[in-house]
Design brief:
The complex is a heterodimer. By secondary structure, chain A is an alpha+beta fold. Chain A is about 35% helix and about 25% strand. Chain A has a 4-stranded antiparallel sheet with strand order 1-2-4-3. In chain A, strand 1 and strand 2 form a beta hairpin. By secondary structure, chain B is an alpha+beta fold. Chain B has a single domain, classed as Phosphatidylinositol 3-kinase Catalytic Subunit, Chain A, domain 1 (Ubiquitin-like (UB roll)). Classes of the chains: A alpha+beta, B alpha+beta. Chain B: This is Autophagy protein 5.
C-alpha cells in the first residue's frame, strides 16, 4: 500500500502568500481520489476539514505546469500566518513557519533540523 | 457603469450551439446513438448542463468499462473548470457551427483534466476564482466581508442563468470608485500550446496613466506571449468571442467583459481558423 507524494510550493501573487500543491500516487501510478485524499488528512484536522472540505482542499490546476494538483486553499493562509507570527519571534523564517503549519495537514512533516 | 449595463446583459446571454457525439471506439451497443444538440451559455461550466448528455449516451457504452464522462474536441481534452466561452474561443472555429464535441467515458486523462466528482466541485472552483479575483482587486476585503448567503447567490445566479440575481451581488465586487479603483486587474492569457499566464497589473500606472489592453500586452516578452498586433500577425486576440480594440481601457474590460468568476479570460488564437 505504498503511496508516493509530490509537493510543490508556488508563490501566489494574487494572494501574496505561498500555496501548497501536491499529488499522491498509488503503487500502480494512479492518482489518489479526492475522497481518499480527505481520508488521509491526520485525525487532528479532520473535524475542521469535514466542516468545510470543499473550501479547504480540492483539485486545482497548477498555475505554472497547467496540470491537475491537489491544493490547500490559500484564503486562510494570510490570517493564519499573521496569528502565528505575532506569537513567534519575527526573525523566524516565514517559509519554515508556514510549512510547519500547513504541511502536516497533507502529510508534509519537516525534519527538526529546520528549526 | 450603469450606462454600459446592456453590455453586461449581452455578454451574459451569449450562447454556443454544441453537437455532442459519442466516441466511436466506445460504442458498445449495435446502433450508434443519436447526436445530442444543446445551446450552451458561454458563461457557465460544462458539467452544469451535461447531465442530460451523460444520460443520453451512457446506455451505449460498455457498462463494465465506463468511468467519469469527459469531453474532447479534435483530440484536445476540454477542461471543465474553464468557462465554456473560453474553451470555444481557444479551441473551436467560430465559422464552423455547431461546435462538434466528442463525449468519452473511458480512459479519463488524469494528467490533464481535473475530476468533477460532485456539483460541489464546480461551486468550490468557481468561488475560489471569485476569491482570487477579489484578492487582486480589493485585497480580498469585499468577498471576505460578504455573508455566506451572498456567496451562495452568486453561485445559484450563475447555475440557474439568473442575470439579475447574479449581478445584484456581483456589482459589489465590480465596485471601483475613483481612487478606490481595482488594485490589480484579474486576468489570464491563454495560448493553446502552454499553461495560461497571469501577472500583477494595475489599471492605472504609477504616473497616473489609464492603462489599455495594449499596455497589458506590452508587459510580456516575446517568449511569454506570441502576439504582436503591430506586426502583421497570424494571431488574433479574443475576449468573450470579441476582438476588442487594443486602446480599450483595461478597467472597462475588467468591469464589462469579465466572466462570472470576475476574471478577464483573454485568448490568443490563430487568425486562419477564424476566417472563412
Amino acid at each position: 500500500d505504498m503511496l508516493t507524494y509530490e509537493y510543490h510550493i508556488v508563490y501566489s501573487s494574487s494572494y501574496s502568500v505561498p500555496v501548497l500543491y501536491f499529488n499522491v500516487y498509488k503503487a500502480d501510478g494512479k492518482l489518489l481520489s479526492l475522497e481518499n485524499i480527505w481520508k488521509i488528512v491526520p485525525d487532528v484536522y479532520q473535524q475542521e476539514l469535514q466542516a468545510d472540505k470543499w473550501s479547504i482542499l480540492t483539485q486545482q490546476e497548477h498555475p505554472l505546469l497547467g496540470r491537475p494538483f491537489y491544493q490547500l486553499h490559500p484564503c486562510h493562509t494570510e490570517m493564519m500566518m499573521k496569528n502565528i507570527r505575532t506569537m513567534l519571534d519575527k526573525r523566524c523564517d516565514y517559509l519554515i513557519s508556514w510549512i510547519s503549519s500547513v504541511g502536516p495537514v497533507v502529510g508534509l512533516n519537516l525534519s527538526l533540523q529546520y528549526a | 457603469m450603469a450606462e454600459d449595463r446592456e453590455v453586461l446583459r449581452e455578454i451574459w446571454e451569449g450562447r454556443i450551439p454544441v453537437c455532442f457525439s459519442l466516441a466511436e471506439e466506445e460504442i458498445y451497443t449495435g446502433e450508434p446513438p443519436d447526436l445530442y444538440y444543446l445551446l450552451v451559455p458561454r458563461q457557465i461550466y460544462f458539467p452544469l448542463v451535461t447531465d442530460k448528455v451523460q444520460r443520453h449516451f451512457i446506455a451505449s457504452v460498455d457498462p463494465d468499462k465506463h468511468g467519469e464522462m469527459w469531453l474532447e474536441y479534435e483530440g484536445q481534452p476540454l477542461k471543465w473548470h474553464y468557462p465554456v466561452g473560453v474553451l470555444f474561443d481557444l479551441f473551436a472555429n467560430s465559422n464552423s457551427l455547431p461546435w462538434n464535441i466528442t463525449v468519452h467515458f473511458q480512459a479519463f486523462p488524469e494528467e490533464e483534466l481535473l475530476h468533477c466528482p460532485a456539483k460541489e466541485a464546480i461551486e468550490s472552483h468557481f468561488m475560489s476564482v471569485v476569491k482570487e479575483a477579489d484578492g487582486l482587486k480589493h485585497r480580498g476585503q469585499l468577498v471576505n466581508n460578504m455573508q455566506k448567503k451572498d456567496h451562495k447567490q452568486l453561485w445559484t445566479g450563475l447555475q440557474n442563468d439568473k442575470f439579475e440575481q447574479f449581478w445584484s451581488v456581483n456589482k459589489k465586487l465590480m465596485e471601483s470608485s475613483g481612487d478606490d479603483s481595482f488594485k490589480y486587474i484579474p486576468y489570464r492569457i491563454y495560448q493553446n500550446d502552454r499553461p495560461y499566464i497571469q501577472k500583477l497589473f494595475k489599471p492605472v500606472s504609477d504616473d497616473g496613466e489609464v492603462q489599455t489592453l495594449r499596455d497589458l500586452l506590452k508587459t510580456f516578452d516575446n517568449d511569454e506571449l506570441c502576439f504582436n498586433p503591430d506586426i502583421s500577425s497570424e494571431k488574433i486576440l479574443l475576449i468573450q468571442g470579441i476582438q476588442p480594440p487594443l486602446e480599450t481601457p483595461i478597467l472597462w474590460l475588467s468591469e464589462h467583459f469579465s466572466y462570472p468568476d470576475n476574471f478577464l479570460h483573454i485568448c490568443i488564437v490563430d487568425k486562419m481558423k477564424n476566417e472563412s
